[in-house]
């Protein structure tokens, strides 16, 4: 089992590394769900000594993006590739709540051209049909999917997460996130069968 620690900035990331975090998701403005951190933060991310996956999200709110926002997304994926981080965390939806497959393919193609690992983020939890969305994301060939099972927290969505794990099989890693704490992580892992968990509580790094 691997616990990925979500960190809002370098100071939080350094604290997570000090607590023996195995991998970090780096973002900014975690209070609004996270957006892409500033470039000066990304420039220092590779000095942390553990794999760092960077959230690629131009703003808070929904996951339906304008042309200018898409340009921003692709630019930041390329920036991450040039900096040399481990991976990117991406996702996009259409107006009707489906996975935006053409856009996601473009983002993934760029990320793969830099050898980046790819996590599909909790945009999947906002999809109109989460299991249909899961099938679409599986077709994209990402490395993992971060999800709360469509609920406000992963413990609340544990039944759906378990179904997602069963449906995904060995095709992708399902990573449970949102409301995961050192106190509820073990039960969540045992119930759902996830191999990875995600949260901002540094205590998770010690599990």
Features:
7 helices; alpha/beta; TIM Barrel; 8 strands; 207 residues
Please give a structural write-up.
The protein is an alpha/beta fold. It contains 7 helices and 8 strands. The protein is 37% helix and 18% strand. An 8-stranded parallel β-barrel has the order 1-2-3-4-5-6-7-8, surrounded by 5 helices. Helix 3 links the parallel strand 3 and strand 4. The relative contact order is 0.15.
Could you provide a short overview of the structure?
The chain has 207 residues and is α/β, with parallel strands linked by helices. Helix content is 37%, strand content 18%.
Taken together, the total number of domains comes to 1
Strand content range: 15-25%
The share of residues in helices is: 25-40%
Q: Report the CATH C-level class.
A: Alpha Beta
Radius of gyration: 16 Å
Give the biggest sheet: 8 strands, parallel, barrel
Flag low-confidence runs.
Answer: none
Tally of individual helices: 7
Give the strand line-up of the largest sheet. Answer: 1-2-3-4-5-6-7-8
What is the assigned CATH homologous superfamily? Copper homeostasis (CutC) domain
CATH fold name, please?
TIM Barrel
N- and C-termini, Cα separation: 8 Å
Q: Architecture in CATH?
A: Alpha-Beta Barrel
- H/E series, N to C? EHEHEHEHEHEHEHE
Envelope shape: globular
- Total beta strands: 8
Helix/strand-derived category reads: alpha/beta
| Average of the residue pLDDT scores | 97
């Amino acid at each position: 089992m691997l616990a990925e620690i979500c960190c809002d900035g370098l100071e939080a990331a350094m604290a997570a590394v000090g607590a023996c975090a195995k991998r970090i998701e780096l973002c900014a403005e975690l209070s609004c769900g996270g957006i892409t951190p500033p470039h000066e933060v990304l420039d220092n991310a590779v000095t942390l000594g553990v794999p760092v996956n960077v959230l690629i999200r131009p703003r808070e709110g929904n996951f339906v993006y304008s042309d200018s926002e898409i340009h921003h997304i692709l630019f930041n994926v390329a920036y991450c590739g040039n900096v040399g981080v481990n991976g990117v965390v991406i996702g996009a939806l259409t107006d009707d709540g489906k996975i935006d497959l053409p856009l996601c393919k473009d983002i993934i193609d760029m990320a793969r051209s830099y050898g980046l690992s790819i996590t599909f983020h909790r945009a999947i939890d906002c999809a109109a049909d989460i299991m249909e969305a899961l099938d679409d994301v599986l077709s994209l060939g990402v490395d993992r999917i971060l999800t709360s099972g469509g609920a406000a927290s992963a413990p609340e969505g544990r039944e759906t997460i378990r179904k997602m794990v069963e449906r995904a099989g060995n095709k992708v890693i399902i990573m449970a996130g949102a409301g995961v704490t050192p106190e509820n992580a073990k039960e969540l892992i045992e119930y759902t069968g996830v191999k990875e968990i995600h949260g901002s509580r540094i205590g998770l790094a010690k599990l």
